[in-house]
Design brief:
The protein is mostly helical and 333 residues long. Helices cover 62% and strands 5% of the residues. Bound molecules: fe (ii) ion (FE2) (2 copies).
Length: 333
């Protein structure tokens, strides 16, 4: 691989590289032999932007809408019509059957037909599945062979997407598929980092296991940029909608968001919730306590004029959704 990992333009600070065991999928599992001769330095903004230009785009993000529209336009009284759209995509079919059989594991005989699966899951869950499948496939290609618990990472992203929608529903924002996609790609900066700066990425996550500092400051120290800003640059360079860029950029600082502040706040809370419940693995294992998510300022962004009672109802609704999440995720990823 010919990725450059540092140059004299950077700060000059060097970090030793620990090489990952090829078979390892968990963070921190290395061969145990740190190769101190190998090192990386933080990069400048222009070096980072140049490198990102070469990073492949996510074709799924531009095709998602057409697949969805087709599905939504299908007359929902006829599950056969929905099933027909799904049948055209073998990977979607496989995921759908896996999902229905894991969510409804109590069924006496496994579900083998798409029509039956559509009947059990309902159109809402099917729509989520249609969106998730191509994005995850793209992400997997982009992330390459970097050692990282990717399956758990996808669970983190999908969990955040599902809960962001729940938060917005509790706040009575009408459903729009863009909030699901925003949740799904909020951490795309980590994937872009693994693709464009694999050695920096490995060092960052190795250090994350050893140090008490938060992930974003380790990223800035080692690479020169954190995953939130990197994700925003990546989405911008591929001309993806502003809302996705803003969610990626501010999902750890929702108070700095502009136009799309409610969406950013919803994704921020969803991210905190899945980390609090330890669902999936975002690569950021800093514990999130009950107080952290219950008292987070993002609730005030979502409910600026409302009574405390409405916030409490919203929190309770979201908490109930959180309990159902692990079962749904098992089937999806
Ligand atoms: Fe993040
Ligand atoms: Fe996240």
């Amino acid at each position: 691989m010919t990725f450059f990992e540092g140059s004299p333009e950077g700060s000059g600070k060097k970090y030793p590289v620990n090489h990952w065991h090829p078979g390892s999928i968990r963070l921190g599992m290395t061969t145990g032999t740190a190769m101190a001769s190998d090192s990386v330095v933080p990069l400048t903004r222009s070096q980072i932007e140049r490198r990102l230009q070469d990073c492949p785009r996510l074709p799924s993000l531009s095709t998602i809408n057409s697949a969805l529209r087709e599905l939504l336009n299908a007359d929902q009284r006829y599950t056969s019509q929905v099933a027909e759209i799904i049948r055209r995509d073998p990977s979607l079919t496989a995921r759908l059957l896996r999902l229905v059989n894991s969510v409804y594991y109590g069924l006496t005989s496994p579900v083998n037909s798409i029509e039956e699966a559509v009947f059990y899951l309902g159109v809402r869950q099917i729509r989520q599945l249609v969106m998730v499948t191509p994005v995850i496939e793209d992400f997997t290609r982009l992330a390459g062979h970097t050692a990282f618990p990717w399956r758990e990472f996808w669970q983190h992203c999908i969990g955040t997407a599902i809960l962001a929608r729940e938060v917005l529903t509790a706040q009575q924002t009408p459903a729009d598929e863009v909030d699901y996609v925003s949740g799904l790609v909020h951490d795309v900066g980590k994937i872009a980092m693994a693709a464009a700066f694999p050695r920096h990425f490995e060092i960052i996550h190795h250090q994350r296991d050893q140090r008490t500092q938060d992930l974003l400051s380790i990223e800035t120290e080692v690479l020169g940029i954190d995953h939130a800003e990197l994700g925003a640059l990546y989405l911008q360079s591929h001309h993806l909608p502003d809302v996705l860029v803003e969610v990626a950029r501010f999902h750890h600082q929702p108070e700095r968001a502009g136009h799309h502040a409610p969406m950013v706040a919803a994704v921020h809370l969803a991210d905190l919730l899945v980390r609090h419940a330890r669902i999936g693995n975002s690569g950021n294992q800093t514990p999130v306590s009950d107080e952290d998510w219950l008292n987070d300022n993002a609730w005030d962004i979502l409910f600026p004029q409302k009574f405390e009672a409405e916030k409490m109802i919203a929190r309770a609704t979201v908490q109930r959704s959180l309990e159902r999440l692990p079962t749904i995720l098992e089937g999806l990823v």
